[in-house]
Design goal:
The complex is a heterodimer. Chain A is 25% helix and 38% strand. By secondary structure, chain A is an alpha+beta fold. Helix content of chain B is 74%, strand content 0%. Chain B contains 18 helices and no strands. Classes of the chains: A alpha+beta, B mainly alpha.
Chain lengths: 240, 424
């Protein structure tokens, strides 16, 4: 049986370890910084810091609408960058949700999907959402003029398999960033996380090397005119 | 500064309410030899009471009044006295909850699922709307209990900030970890070290972003603890009946918090039914209880005409092929290993499981852990293989959270090892 002094000594060591671990917890949760921020910013400011004014969830913009306009129903919100939409910021469970979109957040009037060259193909670097038409394609040729002749295949990869979305062939003299109309109705490009790929076939290497990036332009599924706008701030709109 | 006061009082309010709603002598003295035990059992009762009340559609203030009257009654009648051990433990529990609540209150961030439906469900209850009204919110078929708890503690006692409701999630998380370590046959100081290490390895702010996984984690941890007690040779037969009752309450709570919660707890109950040394009557109680929980869920779907809209079985089954299943298994297995490496308690659990298997004669507890692991793995693969969306994407965004929910269970391997060592 261990002596009392040995137990006391052992307990002292364990207590020191506990205190030490407590400090590690404080470091892990960034306690002092969080405490300072909590005491120096009120709740509304912290909400704005986390969810944005017009951007991210656009908490500030939506709160302005809630305070300044009488909402008879929960407005249907379209947020083209952040999913899920920001209804939670102003949701009133006693009201229905409107059928048509009333609020547009992070709205891009001309959504573009930009592809950069990578390992023999072009890979999308951003995302578009809520589009319904592929309008045009443009090639960044670094200011040069190219005589394009070949097939363009646009696809995505699902479970490591290519899923083709669009195929076309081109035989055209193209200027730097010249828009070539395509006008295909499609919603296949709407994604907030998927990468899309473009492969150019039957084209000589010189042409491929001249293309720095490819830009696809889309139409928005939901459009509105400036007359429809009740209140706006940057890319956020509240419409009739 | 006032918010810090709110947080501190909220922590005291939750702990006091939980501790006082039911004196531990009601269930059994031996089971409640520690504060953490009493708090965890009372939490299970409180969560089930909240569930029952959520169906009434009544304002939560009536429930609060009932709970406060019950607390006062027990406080006066039973003349509660906290002994010194309790006092030090309660300070430790409260301090840890407070430390973890500050980042939550400052950051305020909500998870994807929370923004999409959990918080909308919470708002529904917060705005005094009943369960019927939930059909206006996405994912009506998803359980509502976690959101109800969130709204209740948002409203009471201060009715100020939504994050005050989420502090309950932190309380339950900390209480369940403290309670779990009661089954270790080691000194209190050693237990505290293990508790803090468990918090250090499992805590992340994301857990309290309004998603419900942390509640399931805590319930699974408690179910692991009580299941272990049933397998333990030191537990008397009459105690086992009460433990089975607690396990059924955990099952009920879990199935009303998240769909998979039902499976994660029922795997343990199924193992108890098959492997544990329990009487025929206890088996009947167990089966009847599980049946009643399933029936209550089915009744809910029937009464509220809710479809399993979030699952879309037809769409899923139509797209299944053998090559697709093999590809999905590869993807799931790959990510499972990646996430396993990111979760220290699970990694330690797996390593200790192998070590225990090699070092000690296979007994019922080892079989129980093995059984649970097999069912858990099968469930995860099945859930993701038959996922309606792109499997890789689903696995990338969801698998870690699913694995996390049962990760606490594998701490039983550590219990097993340390208790074996202490026996020697």
């Amino acid at each position: 049986m261990p002596s009392k002094s040995k137990i006391a000594k052992n307990n002292l060591y364990l207590s020191i370890i506990i205190v030490f671990l407590f400090f590690i917890i404080l470091i892990k949760v960034d306690f002092w910084k969080q405490l300072y921020s909590l005491t120096s910013n009120n709740h509304h400011v912290r909400m704005l810091n986390t969810f944005g004014m017009c951007g991210k969830d656009s908490y500030g913009f939506l709160k302005n609408i809630e305070q300044n306009y009488e909402l008879t129903e929960n407005p249907l919100i379209i947020n083209t960058k952040v999913m899920p939409n920001s209804l939670w910021t102003i949701y009133d469970s006693r009201k229905k949700i409107s059928n048509s979109p009333k609020i547009f957040l992070n709205y891009q009037r001309n959504p573009l999907l930009i592809f950069f060259s990578k390992e023999g193909k072009f890979v999308s670097q951003n995302h578009v959402q809520l589009t319904n038409e592929l309008k045009s394609v443009a090639f960044d040729t670094g200011g040069k003029f190219i005589n394009f002749k070949g097939n363009i295949h646009i696809f995505k990869i699902v479970n490591r398999k290519k899923i083709f979305i669009f195929k076309t062939n081109f035989k055209k003299k193209i200027n730097h960033l010249e828009k070539v109309n395509i006008l295909v109705k499609t919603k296949e490009f709407n994604s907030r996380w998927e990468n899309f790929y473009i492969e150019i076939e039957n084209s000589n290497l010189e042409i491929k090397n001249k293309i720095n990036k490819i830009i696809l332009a889309f139409s928005n599924e939901h459009k509105f005119s400036s007359n429809d706008i009740i209140y706006s701030q940057d890319n956020c709109y509240y419409i009739k | 500064m006032i918010e810090i006061l709110y947080i501190a009082i909220q922590v005291i309010f939750i702990l006091s309410l939980t501790y006082l709603i039911l004196p531990s002598s009601v269930y059994q003295k031996k089971l409640s030899y520690s504060l953490a035990n009493a708090l965890s059992i009372n939490s299970i009762f409180l969560i089930n009471i909240l569930l029952l009340f959520s169906f009434t559609g009544l304002n939560g203030i009536y429930l609060l009044i009932i709970l406060l009257i019950a607390s006062m009654f027990f406080l006066i009648k039973k003349n509660y006295k906290l002994n010194i051990n309790y006092k030090s433990q309660v300070i430790l529990v409260a301090l840890l909850i407070f430390f973890l609540s500050i980042p939550l209150a400052n950051t305020l961030d909500l998870g994807w699922d929370a923004k999409f439906f959990w918080f909308l469900k919470t708002l529904n209850f917060y705005q005094d709307q009943g369960i019927y009204n939930l059909n206006r919110v996405p994912a009506f078929d998803y359980p509502h209990l976690g959101s109800y708890i969130w709204s209740f503690f948002w409203k009471f006692p201060f009715n100020k900030f939504e994050y005050l409701g989420r502090i309950y999630y932190i309380c339950f998380y900390v209480i369940s970890i403290f309670s779990f370590f009661e089954i270790f046959k080691i000194s209190n100081l050693q237990k505290i070290i293990l508790i803090i290490l468990t918090i250090l390895t499992t805590y992340s702010l994301e857990l309290f972003s309004g998603n419900q996984e942390v509640l399931i984690f805590s319930l699974v941890l408690l179910s692991a603890k009580f299941s272990y007690s049933i397998f333990s040779s030191q537990t008397k037969a009459n105690e086992k009946t009460k433990i089975i009752f607690f396990l059924l309450l955990i099952l009920n709570a879990a199935s009303w918090i998240k769909m998979e919660g039902f499976f994660f707890v029922s795997f343990a109950l199924f193992a108890i039914f098959v492997l544990a040394n329990i009487s025929k009557n206890q088996k009947i109680i167990l089966i009847t209880g599980v049946f009643l929980v399933i029936l209550s869920r089915l009744l809910f779907f029937k009464i509220f005409s809710a479809d399993l809209e979030s699952f879309q079985f037809e769409k899923t089954l139509n797209t299944v092929s053998v090559s697709g299943i093999i590809a999905s298994i590869k993807i799931i297995a790959f990510y499972a290993f990646v996430y396993l490496a990111q979760m220290p308690i699970l990694l330690i659990g797996v390593l200790l499981f192998v070590y225990n298997f090699y070092m000690y004669k296979i007994d019922k507890i080892q079989l129980f852990i093995c059984w649970y692991a097999i069912f858990n793995i099968l469930f995860i693969f099945a859930a993701f293989i038959f996922s309606m969306e792109n499997v890789e994407w689903q696995v990338r965004v969801g698998l870690k959270r699913v694995i996390f929910q049962t990760s606490g269970f594998y701490l039983l391997t550590l219990v097993y090892l340390l208790n074996k060592i202490s026996k020697k």
